[in-house]
Write a structure and sequence with these properties.
It is built from 15 helices and 13 strands. It is an alpha/beta fold. β4, α3 and β5 form a beta-alpha-beta unit.
């Protein structure tokens, strides 16, 4: 291949190896003046030792073969400030896992040039965090580490995921100094991506697959971004994949997220699984969501008894009653007396809530003046009273 354009220090460097010429030309046009793209006839002649900034290496489909993938990844890793993404003819879970294990920072389907362009910028952003000028991550346990908020309900259908999504988006809208992250830890039937109208390329399974080399830049490449700025780590696409995620894996993922985020929100399954128990133990705040019906209150009471047996401090429990204004024969004061816990948020029953779920637009975004959104915003202020606010 011939050189398309010499790389200069003023623009993003993109080194293309083994990519079909038509795709390469389209990528060059999309990147425009923002990047300097150079073609290389082979990976061996890729020498970036003099490069002062990050260089994104785009490898063509021929590098997806198992016998060449690891060697290519090692060669790129040996280059200063360089990272690779792999272009494939057909993206599959097997190829994705193999590529991430080898050290690729991203994998994209070559038929989607726009996604390839976005992937190039994602990799470049992550590489910039590895340069000497980058701020080193805050260690877990540091006073500046993100606050961990777990949202839990012992009964399905209480509105747990709705609360988690709206709370996370509300915090993301407020945060000005560091991002807010949301993990969908309902590993069998997580709905966070649907509720936020996201189509994630990667899930938590990809993070677990690359656990032996998982760091902040790699984890960031697996997150998708909501319009509010919220970073989301999606649940597995199929229930069977959830078995691959263990409590120690979740601990590592949370630890990395806490190193660069201001808040980490976790949506859990409606059961005391090993992963959920670990998250509950590690959390700074445990948001308990209950509906205004007898089965939900009964399960919550049993759940609170279980938490007490586990030694969960009562000062980190925050009760949220959903559909609290529904005329169902239960009074809020009676529920609080039964649970021996004061409700910190009374979410009203409103048709806009299921409508917002169906639209994939959280109420705090789509209907910010509604009673539900205002209550969620007030609850977000309770969770994060000192969170630096965005201007405007």
């Amino acid at each position: 291949m011939t050189t398309v354009e010499p790389m200069t220090e003023s623009r993003l460097r993109v080194a293309v190896v083994g990519v079909e010429p038509t795709l390469e030309s389209r990528l060059t046009r999309l990147l425009g003046d923002r990047a300097a793209v150079a073609s290389h006839a082979s990976l061996r002649n890729l020498e970036l030792g003099s490069a002062n900034g990050p260089t994104v290496v785009v490898l063509g489909p021929s590098f997806s073969a198992p016998d060449v993938l690891e060697g290519a990844a090692r060669h790129v890793a040996a280059q200063p400030n360089a990272g690779a993404l792999l272009v494939v003819d057909e993206l599959s879970t097997q190829v994705l896992q193999r590529a991430l294990r080898a050290g690729m920072l991203d994998v994209v389907n070559g038929t989607d040039v726009s996604e390839l362009e976005r992937a190039v910028h994602r990799v470049a952003e992550h590489l910039s965090q590895r340069t000497p000028a980058a701020v080193s991550p805050v260690a877990a346990g540091d006073a500046r580490a993100a606050r961990l908020v777990t949202v839990f309900s012992p009964k399905g259908g209480a509105g747990k995921s709705v609360v988690a999504c709206n709370l996370a988006v509300a915090l993301a809208q407020r945060s000005s100094e560091a991002p807010v992250a949301l993990i969908d830890a309902d590993l069998q039937f997580g709905d966070v991506a649907v509720m936020l109208k996201l189509t994630p390329l990667h899930t938590i399974v990809d993070a677990v697959t690359a656990m032996h080399r998982l760091d902040v830049p790699l984890l960031r490449s697996l997150l998708c971004t909501h319009q509010s700025g919220l970073l989301v780590l999606a649940a597995p696409r199929e229930p069977a994949f959830g078995d691959q995620v263990q409590a120690n894996d979740m601990h590592r993922i949370v630890e990395l997220l806490r190193s660069f985020c201001s808040y980490v929100i976790i949506d859990t399954p409606a059961q005391f699984s090993d992963v959920a128990l670990h998250l509950i133990e590690e959390s700074d705040d445990l948001v308990l969501v209950a509906g205004m019906d007898v089965p939900s209150i009964k399960n919550m009471k049993i759940g609170l008894q279980t938490l007490k047996l586990l030694g969960t401090p009562s000062n980190k429990l925050r009760l949220v009653l959903n559909r609290a204004n529904a005329r169902v024969g239960l009074d809020v004061s009676e529920v609080e007396k039964t649970l021996h816990l004061k409700a910190e948020a009374l979410l009203p029953s409103d048709i806009l809530v299921p409508q917002s779920v169906n639209k994939g637009v959280p109420a705090v975004v789509g209907s910010p003046k509604s009673a539900f959104a205002k209550t969620m915003s007030a609850f977000a202020d309770l969770i994060a009273p000192d969170l630096p606010r965005r201007r405007g």
